[in-house]
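dumping the sequnces here before i forget
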Amino acid sequence: MESTAAEQEAFVAAVALTLQEFLAEKGTLLAGISPDALVLVDSIASLVTGGKRMRAILCYWGWRGAGGAPGAEEIIKAGAALELFQAAALIHDDIIDRSDTRRGGPSVHRQFGSLHAGRGWALDRERFGHAAAILTGDLCLSFSEEMFASIGSGSASRARAIFNLMRTEVMAGQYLDILEEVSGPTKPHSTAVARAAAIIRFKSAKYSSEHPLVLGGALAGASPELLAGYSAFALPLGEAFQLRDDVLGVFGDPAQTGKPAGDDLREGKRTVLVGLTIAAAGEADREFVDTHLGRQDLSDADIDSLCSIMVKSGALTGTEAMIADLSTAAFTALAQLPIDGAISEALSALGRSAVSRTS
Amino acid sequence: MESTAAEQEAFVAAVALTLQEFLAEKGTLLAGISPDALVLVDSIASLVTGGKRMRAILCYWGWRGAGGAPGAEEIIKAGAALELFQAAALIHDDIIDRSDTRRGGPSVHRQFGSLHAGRGWALDRERFGHAAAILTGDLCLSFSEEMFASIGSGSASRARAIFNLMRTEVMAGQYLDILEEVSGPTKPHSTAVARAAAIIRFKSAKYSSEHPLVLGGALAGASPELLAGYSAFALPLGEAFQLRDDVLGVFGDPAQTGKPAGDDLREGKRTVLVGLTIAAAGEADREFVDTHLGRQDLSDADIDSLCSIMVKSGALTGTEAMIADLSTAAFTALAQLPIDGAISEALSALGRSAVSRTS
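..and the predicted 3d for all of it:
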């Protein structure tokens, strides 16, 4: 146990160092183009410094469970590529969701907006912030790819197929998510839960949990059976994780989650929690949800009303029950994985923290 | 001559077919996630159907000049990857520049805006359009990368280094471009031309001309000397091309360019043409340019005034002189390239059309 914790810590440190060196090199390149362009890399660097590195860690244990050597360069690079991809996704997500904060600091488009305001530049501050953040996200996406491509040969082509699939699926899932925000109210209430479940599968569970674990396994040359076992564990785990995230997004403590209360409701996220609410609430409550969700000007009283509808409709309890069922499925599959006990325990610890966290 | 034209046509057709097959496969994948997600691939497919395929063609002749075989799979994939990258860049550029049209049709964010309006969806139409287009561009960027990574081994790692550099440089150049729009008026008039020249170098000339040609050469295993010769031809050519573009963006015929008159002026593009104007115009004219450039509400009379200032300041003539000088440098370098005469002639034809075009 202690040695897996130390090993994981060493891996995380190695990923951080690789990212730091990579971005320092990119900083030199950009500074050569223009000192003004350096800010692009700085904002990426500060973003990848934070975060839980959950995807990189899952990837690592997927690698180790399939017989990959501790601390090998391939897996460090794969982990760094996943972290850069996640940073890129966050930068663009925050524009799409109009989130002002990220990992305790201002989101990237807000950083550029502040730069604009601070220097007294011309034209529209917000527009500049969005444009600069679109470009920063694109750059970060390219960096992720560059890092992944540097892994080299061996089993990299099987891992590459998963990396490709992961990217396509998460972007499609993100699209379905924003589509649901605008088209959800026009679609049948009876299928709201199913639609929300599809979104979290592609946008979150496969992307943040299943693919990283399977990618690590594939990189180490795992058998198809082991990879299927990884999926049977990580997919329900990822779904449970996202359901937990949705609950925290509405009922969590802002001091712990780092996101202002009501942010998810103002964004109009049509989560499984919302789907269950819509499916079970009475006519008046449903009407209230449909007309208030996604409004930027929600008052504290509106937020309280929405929360109360979610509780009394049984949607909160229902979501917690789904989390419990998915967790059971995940941990049952984990127990059957033909991997080293210490590695299984490391995955179990990750799983427990994913579904029972408070932030 | 006739055979190079036929060969180039066959290459362009092969790139188109490869793109079509690749996107059909992605369409199947996305439809499996949700039929609603198919629109993402459809909008990419319609975008890559058009265009002059200039980058792919330059890449092809770079490959052929370095001894690459006609119609080889590697170069077709490299060409397709460049086309996908360009499509991704256009999708995000059009959001940044707020362009309503692209290649004769609505830009991608406008397509999604229309979808929103047509279906009577909730919340903000424009916001949905931008969000969906950010995701479509990200998906297209990933597709580009996936296509490039499928080239395989051989000289692919040298080409990969160029592909990586190309992406970083173009994104940095795009950032410098939007930065100049907002910060240009606060910076010295005397350096406006130099700043604009740096932007076109990284945003356009290296990206659209030098890197594609060099990438093709590197993929075929060209010597460093040949690659340096390619650069000596393609960099000034690309600069001349962009200067021509800037002139057409202000003085071109909208019916031929496909862009509404004054679009570049409303966007506030700080081109070399604008830099020369600012450096040479009288105080009152300069003041007029600084206060009008980048205003969305420019009237036809404002546009006429801006054009007239550009003419009488000598900026238009100055830009044409720069185009002539750069062309001379490019064609002198081309004449010295140790490549087959027919290939040299093909590059020459491309060069001529790039600098003397009307659309």
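Residues 40 and 255 of chain A are 29 Å apart (CA to CA).
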